[in-house]
Amino acid sequence: MPKIVDQEARRRLIAETAIQIIGTRGIEAASVRTVAAEAGVSAGAVQRCFATKDELLRFVLHQVNARFTARVQARMAQASDPTDEALGLRVIIDEMLPLDDERRLTCAATLALLAYSATQPAATEIMRSAYQAAHGFFMRAFDRDAAIALYAVISGLQGPLLVGAITPAQAYTIVEMSIAHKATTRWARSAPG
């Protein structure tokens, strides 16, 4: 009798393996052959799940977003008030900063996938949607422009943290200064120069 394979579980396994490879060795290392070998499946199995490498990478983008959301939800489920939006914002900010192995892996993979998505229209849409969802959550606490600006500041801290150009303490100081600034001032809406 042929073995029944859970294709969705296999797709997730392949995507998780690709995230590990991309987050530790870069997107160029995530060939079908390498992903297959490290996932413990055949290259043909990868190709049956994903017709192209681009299709795999788009699925990986969704998986990265799902992993991030799951971590935030798990932390909020342990909070004394899981509906506390101020705490939720802090948890999201904390999860965005690459300060432990899991967050470093996710952040490195996300940054590599961001560069990839800049030249791939279907991936661009996935990344844009993720940004819009994040902006929407930040807009629960700040006006639209301040929310987008705060998100941009936190995103901008990721690369310097990954390469050790700033310390976690410096990153948190920048975050706190940005939050305080956004809470007390309104950004001037004027055209550049």
From TrEMBL:
Residues covered by the HTH tetR-type domain: 8-68
Alphabetical list of InterPro entries matching this protein: BetI_C (IPR039538), Homeodomain-like_sf (IPR009057), HTH-type_TetR-like_transc_reg (IPR050109), HTH_TetR (IPR001647), Tet_transcr_reg_TetR-rel_C_sf (IPR036271)
Keywords in alphabetical order: DNA-binding, Repressor, Transcription, Transcription regulation
Domain of life of the source: Bacteria
Molecular functions per Gene Ontology: DNA-binding transcription factor activity; transcription cis-regulatory region binding
DNA-binding segment(s): 31-50
Designated name of the protein: HTH tetR-type domain-containing protein
